[in-house]
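Sequence in, structure out.
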Amino acid sequence: MFPTLTLTEAKGRQWDMIIAGSSFSAMFFLQGLPKGLSVLVIEKGRHMTHEEQITTGFRNLEDVPMVNTSPHQKEWVLHTLLGGNSNCWWACTPRFHPSDFRMQSLYGVGEDWPLTYDDLAPFYQEVEEAMDVNGGGSDHVLPRDKPFPYPAHLPTRSDKLLRAHSDMWWAQPTARANGGPRAQCCANGICDECPIDSKYTVLNSFDRLAYDGAHLLTEAEVRAIRIEGGRATGVQVRSDGTEAEITGSAVALGANALFNAVILLRSGVDHPKLGVGINEQVAQNVLVDGPGLGYFGGTSVTGHGYALYDGPHRAEHSGVLMETYNAPMELRREPGRWGERLRMKIIAEDLPRDDNRVVLRGDDYVIEWAGHDDYAWRGLEWGMEQLQSILPDGLDFWGFTEPVKTEKHVMGTHRFGTDPARHVVDPDLRVHGVAGLFALGSGVFPTSSLANPTLTISALALRAGRQVE
């Protein structure tokens, strides 16, 4: 653990780098920084050990104010603790598909990223090694220069059936341990509260995150950036009702896509796209019954299906990524066949919309939510229509749930690119027009991809830290 300071102690120093937040983007950015800097990590939440979290069930879930004018229910899930959402994630760690970085060039949709899959590949590898990620062979549908650090978890009966039917089903890469220093995943299916501390979190990885010169200030909220002469010179914080300023030569925002945007707005950063385009994937759960299906895999989410992911269809609607689960949503009632069920989630990518945005309301903020883009809904509908054609014959029951209320992936509020007129952040995650100010995390994503964003968030942050001189 980094040395922890009081607010008075933190105010009494000039820092080389101040980092707001303590989850994936903040910590991997820290790992990328050159050695020898004095760094202050400021976390809004408190430090609770894993044991305290499990014992109390405490998560400090943020109450996110929202005006929802869409026809669907919507939730945003953000936890404020030391380690942020790393405490409650499910540790699913796929890379993005190479095509995800070139949606405009390939399909005339959205916007290309200012870097490519190949640019990010070495940083993906470093993060996978830091997280002890496990996965399938090196011939995975996504290009790899090296094998996964650890082998994949055992497949379920359903996974085996699906893989025998098609070569587009793969083990899901995960940071739920299957080798390495943490306890072996026990496949209990309650990964948000992992009882044995098997998944990668910031808290169980502080020994790997060690950085000489880094200090920690907890229970202090970064409210705004102090900007003078076009340069970030410190932060304004609130702690236990006390307002204070802490000075630094550079500032990195690693809170999350929502709070990064709020902080930048409060700081007077004036950009037409700041806070605009908040989005996340939309998903639906599916139940499939039939002979040969079943559970008994080695972790909670075991498989990925890529048959409907990429292709020309993405010019008209989203593709879908399919996840297979090792935990039943509900059991079959037929005697002797209770386990002959496949639980699957199908996930469609969203596109940023200008009428989905974060705005300030006095000293606070609100999300104005008009709904997922039609591109996502068309993709989800198409994916459900295609399922029977890509699954084995003889599956005799289909059950579709309502779309899930959240994928817990907030994205797109300060998108990055090379044009300061259209992008809030540059390709190295520096805020255009403000020297010494970085905005990390999934807020920079121009498009959302179908895959879980955490590995990409972490790889981008590590890369950004390496650009600091």
